[in-house]
Write a structure and sequence with these properties.
Layout: E1 4-9, H1 15-28, E2 33-37, E3 46-48, E4 54-56, E5 58-59, H2 66-75, E6 82-85, H3 93-106, E7 109-115, H4 125-133, E8 136-139, E9 154-159, E10 162-164, E11 175-177, E12 181-188, H5 190-194, H6 199-205
Parallel strand pairs: 1-7, 1-8, 2-5, 2-6, 6-7
Antiparallel strand pairs: 3-4, 9-10, 9-12, 11-12
Helix pairs in contact: 3-4
Bound molecules: zinc ion.
Zinc ion (ZN) binds at residues 146, 148, 150, 188-189, 191-192.
Length: 234
Amino acid sequence: MAELLFFTGTMDSGKSTLALQMDHNHAARGRTGLIFSQHDRAGANMLSSRLGLSTGAIEVDDDLDFWEVIVERATAGQHIDYLICDEAQFYSSAQVEQLARVVDEMDIDVFAFGITSDFRTELFPGSKRLVELADRVQVLQVEALCWCGRRATINARVVDGTMVVEGEQVVVGDVASAEVGIVEYEVLCRRHYMRRMTSHAARAASPSPALLPFDLDVCPLPPQPVTQPGAASD
Ligand SMILES: [Zn+2]
């Protein structure tokens, strides 16, 4: 019985490495798979891992319909046992629903990999739909670490060296553009995310370059916006 599995975690939790390993393991057993990705760091039509491995992949653009792609290939005589779907956080809800239909009606396993939430700590639409529909959700066990050594659970966005908590949901990192500046991402623990304390800010706040301010008192919480009692909040 085919299954829809969602493997999720922060950046640096080894998702793409696991995706490549999963493909290898299934291919070694004589199974045939298709690999999909979107906005991979190595470019379009690629699935790459931070450890240096990569393979070709089908780019999932907004118009891609998984159901149509699989039906077309099956009709042409291609046998497909499983799909590897990386960067699944970027997929639309409709595309995740297409993946569920591929599992149910074509008996093809779907292994989806994605970041759970964005730099504002809100769920990506693709990840939300996967959490809702997947047969199993597995949180990756390779723990990404904050600069303080705690488990990092949040991807912070840093624009021109300053952490931001507002902006477009999808801005691919390590790119400079005239409109948004240089966008980078850093994994942080929740405490340091709430205090807007990236590794760079921590070094700047430290009295000596060798000492990082692990004491939370040196990085107070930013002032909270004043809300009226009974006022709607979002
Ligand atoms: Zn931390």
